[in-house]
C-alpha cells in the first residue's frame, strides 16, 4: 500500500502530472474575484472565507478525473482490482494521494491568497484549520465520483455534476467555520460537524467507491 | 398448525417478489393501469377544482392560499419519489430484480418535474408574500439541492451504455446521494440560521391550515400520489419494453 | 368564475405552470411508451417470421 501511495505521488508530481495546476487555478480564481466584485476592501473581506472555500473546492474538482483515468488506460486498475490488497484499501490510498497532492497544497496556499482578499486577521487560522479538516472529505468524495465515472470516455463533465452536490455539506460547514472565525464568533460547532462529515465519508465512501469500480471493471 | 402458518408466511413472502418478474409485472400493471389512471384523474380533478373554486380566501394571504393545493402535494412527491428510488435501488442491489431498478429509473424524471413544480409555485407564491421570487430559506434551498441530485442521477443513467452497469452505478449513487442529501438538509438549516438570525420565512403551511383548506388539500395529495403511481407504471412498462427490445436486437445480431 | 382579486396573476400563473409541466411529463411518457411498444412489436414480428 505504501508502494502504491509513493507511486501515485510520483506520478502526480512528475512533469505533466497535474500537480500545481490546481494551485494555479486556485490563484487565478482568487485573482478574478476582485475584478468581478470590485476592489473595495470591506466587501472583499466579508466574502473572503466563502470565496476561498469555493475556489479550493473547484480547484480540487479539477484533478479528480486523473485519480483513476491513467490507471484505467494502461490497465493497471485491473491489476489493482485483483491485487492482494483489498480494493477498498486501494481507493483509500488513492484518495490520500489526491489529498497530499491537491488538498494539502490548497490548504497551505489559502492563507497566502487570503491576504489578497483582505481576510480578517483571526480568520487565517480558522480558514486553514477548516480547510485542513474539510479537504480530506473533498478528496474521498471526489474519489467516489471518479470511481463512478471511470468507465466513461468523457466523464469529466458528468463527474462535476455528480460530485458538486455531494460537496455541499462540506462547503457549508467549512465556509461557516472560516467565516465565524474571521468575525471572532464560536467555531466549535461547524468544525465539529465538518470533522464528522470527513470521518463519516472516510468510513463509508471507500466501500461505495470500490463497489463502483468493481461494477465498472466487470 | 405451525407448519401451515409457516407455509402461508412463506407464500405471502413469495407473493411480493412475484411482481418483480417482468412478465408478471407487465400483466398486473396492464390490468391495474386503467383503474389507477381513472382514480388519479378523478382525485386530482376533484382536489384541484375543490381547492381552486370552492375554498374561501385566507384573511392574510388572500387568493394565493389556493397555490397550496399544488405546492404542498408536489413538494411531498418530490421527496417521496426520491425515497421510492432509494428503496427500489436497494432492492435491486440486494435481490437483483430488474423491474425494481427500472422503476427507480422511471421515477426520476417524475421526481424532477415535481421538484420543479414545487420550486416554481414556491417562487410565484413567494413574490407577493415575501416580496421576492427567491429567498435562501432552508426549505427552498433544500429543494434546489434535491433538484441537483436528481439531475446527477439521471445524467449517470444517460451516460452509461450497458444497462446493468448503469443500474448498479445509479443505485450506488442513489444510496450515497441520499445520505448526502440528508446531510445537506441539516447543513442548510444550520447555515441559514447562521446567516440571518431569526429569519422566519417558513413555508410550513400544514401547521396552521384550517379544516376548510385541509380537506381539499388531502384530496389533492392523494391525487398527486396516484398521478405518480400512474406515471411510474407507464414509464416502467416502457423501460421493460426497451430492455426486452435490446435483448431481442442483441439476439438477432448473434444469430 | 371565482374571484381571485389582486392575486389573480399569481394564482393562475402557479396553476398554469403546474398544468403545463404535468401535461408535458404525461405527454412525454405516453409518447415514449407508444414508440417503444411499436418498436418492440415490430421486432417481435420480424423475429417471429425469421426464426
Automatic annotation (TrEMBL), chain A:
Coiled-coil residues: none
Domain of life: Bacteria
Topology class, membrane: Multi-pass membrane protein
Signal peptide (UniProt feature, chain positions): none
Membrane-crossing segments per the record: 12-35, 47-64, 96-119, 125-150, 157-175, 195-217
InterPro entries, per database record: Cyt_c_biogenesis_CcmB, Cyt_c_CcmB_bac
UniProt keyword list: Cell inner membrane, Cell membrane, Cytochrome c-type biogenesis, Membrane, Transmembrane, Transmembrane helix, Transport
Subcellular location: Cell inner membrane
Primary localisation category: membrane
Function: Required for the export of heme to the periplasm for the biogenesis of c-type cytochromes.
Similarity remark: Belongs to the CcmB/CycW/HelB family.
Record's protein name: Heme exporter protein B
Organism, as annotated: Albidovulum salinarum
Lineage: Bacteria, Pseudomonadati, Pseudomonadota, Alphaproteobacteria, Rhodobacterales
Gene that specifies this protein: ccmB
UniProtKB/TrEMBL annotation, chain C:
Domain of life per record: Bacteria
Keyword Cell inner membrane: yes
Protein name: Heme exporter protein D
Membrane-related topology note: Single-pass membrane protein
UniProt keyword Cell inner membrane present: yes
Species assigned in the record: Albidovulum salinarum
Pfam family, one: CcmD
Classification via NCBIfam families: cytochro_ccmD (TIGR03141)
Primary location class: membrane
Membrane-traversing stretches: 12-30
Location in or out of the cell: Cell inner membrane
Similarity section: Belongs to the CcmD/CycX/HelD family.
InterPro entries: Haem_export_protD_CcmD (IPR007078)
Taxonomic classification: Bacteria, Pseudomonadati, Pseudomonadota, Alphaproteobacteria, Rhodobacterales
Keyword terms of this UniProt record: Cell inner membrane, Cell membrane, Cytochrome c-type biogenesis, Membrane, Transmembrane, Transmembrane helix, Transport
Entry function: Required for the export of heme to the periplasm for the biogenesis of c-type cytochromes.
Amino acid at each position: 500500500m505504501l508502494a502504491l501511495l509513493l507511486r501515485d505521488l510520483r506520478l502526480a508530481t512528475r512533469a505533466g502530472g497535474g500537480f500545481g495546476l490546481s494551485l494555479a487555478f486556485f490563484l487565478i480564481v482568487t485573482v478574478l474575484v476582485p475584478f468581478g466584485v470590485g476592489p473595495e476592501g470591506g466587501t472583499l473581506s466579508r466574502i473572503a472565507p466563502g470565496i476561498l472555500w469555493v475556489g479550493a473546492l473547484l480547484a480540487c474538482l479539477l484533478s479528480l478525473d486523473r485519480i483513476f483515468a491513467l490507471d484505467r488506460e494502461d490497465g493497471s486498475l485491473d491489476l489493482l482490482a485483483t491485487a492482494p490488497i483489498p480494493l477498498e484499501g486501494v481507493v483509500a490510498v488513492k484518495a490520500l494521494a489526491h489529498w497530499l497532492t491537491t488538498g494539502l497544497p490548497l490548504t497551505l496556499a489559502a492563507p497566502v491568497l487570503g491576504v489578497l482578499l483582505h481576510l480578517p486577521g483571526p480568520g487565517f487560522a480558522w480558514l486553514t484549520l477548516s480547510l485542513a479538516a474539510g479537504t480530506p472529505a473533498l478528496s474521498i468524495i471526489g474519489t467516489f465520483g471518479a470511481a463512478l465515472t471511470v468507465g466513461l470516455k468523457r466523464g469529466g463533465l458528468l463527474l462535476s455534476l455528480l460530485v458538486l452536490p455531494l460537496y455541499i455539506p462540506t462547503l457549508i460547514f467549512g465556509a461557516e467555520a472560516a467565516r465565524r472565525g474571521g468575525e471572532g464568533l464560536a467555531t466549535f460547532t461547524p468544525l465539529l460537524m465538518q470533522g464528522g462529515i470527513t470521518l463519516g465519508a472516510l468510513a463509508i465512501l471507500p466501500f461505495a467507491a470500490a463497489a463502483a469500480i468493481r461494477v465498472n471493471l466487470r | 398448525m405451525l407448519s401451515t402458518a409457516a407455509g402461508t408466511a412463506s407464500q405471502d413472502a413469495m407473493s411480493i417478489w412475484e411482481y418483480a418478474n417482468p412478465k408478471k409485472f407487465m400483466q398486473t400493471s396492464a390490468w391495474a393501469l386503467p383503474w389507477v389512471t381513472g382514480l388519479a384523474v378523478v382525485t386530482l380533478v376533484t382536489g384541484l377544482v375543490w381547492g381552486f373554486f370552492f375554498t374561501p380566501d385566507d384573511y392574510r394571504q388572500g387568493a394565493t392560499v389556493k397555490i397550496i393545493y399544488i405546492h404542498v402535494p408536489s413538494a411531498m412527491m418530490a421527496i417521496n419519489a426520491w425515497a421510492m428510488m432509494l428503496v427500489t435501488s436497494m432492492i435491486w442491489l440486494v435481490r437483483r430484480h430488474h423491474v425494481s431498478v427500472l422503476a427507480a429509473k422511471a421515477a426520476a424524471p417524475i421526481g424532477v418535474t415535481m421538484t420543479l413544480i414545487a420550486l416554481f409555485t414556491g417562487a410565484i407564491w413567494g413574490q407577493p408574500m415575501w416580496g421576492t421570487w427567491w429567498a435562501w430559506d432552508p426549505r427552498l434551498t433544500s429543494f434546489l439541492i434535491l433538484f441537483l441530485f436528481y439531475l446527477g442521477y439521471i445524467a449517470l443513467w444517460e451516460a452509461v451504455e450497458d444497462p446493468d452497469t448503469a443500474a448498479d452505478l445509479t443505485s450506488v449513487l442513489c444510496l450515497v446521494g441520499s445520505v448526502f442529501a440528508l446531510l445537506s438538509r441539516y447543513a442548510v438549516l444550520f447555515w441559514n440560521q447562521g446567516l440571518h438570525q431569526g429569519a422566519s420565512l417558513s413555508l410550513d403551511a400544514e401547521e396552521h391550515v384550517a379544516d376548510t383548506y385541509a380537506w381539499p388539500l388531502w384530496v389533492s395529495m392523494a391525487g398527486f400520489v396516484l398521478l405518480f403511481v400512474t406515471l411510474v407504471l407507464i414509464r416502467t412498462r416502457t423501460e421493460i419494453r426497451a430492455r426486452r427490445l435490446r435483448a431481442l436486437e442483441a439476439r438477432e445480431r448473434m444469430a | 368564475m371565482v374571484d381571485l382579486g389582486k392575486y389573480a396573476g399569481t394564482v393562475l400563473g402557479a396553476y398554469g405552470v403546474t398544468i403545463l409541466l404535468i401535461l408535458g411529463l404525461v405527454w412525454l411518457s405516453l409518447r415514449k411508451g407508444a414508440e417503444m411498444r411499436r418498436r418492440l412489436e415490430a421486432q417481435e414480428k420480424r423475429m417471429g417470421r425469421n426464426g
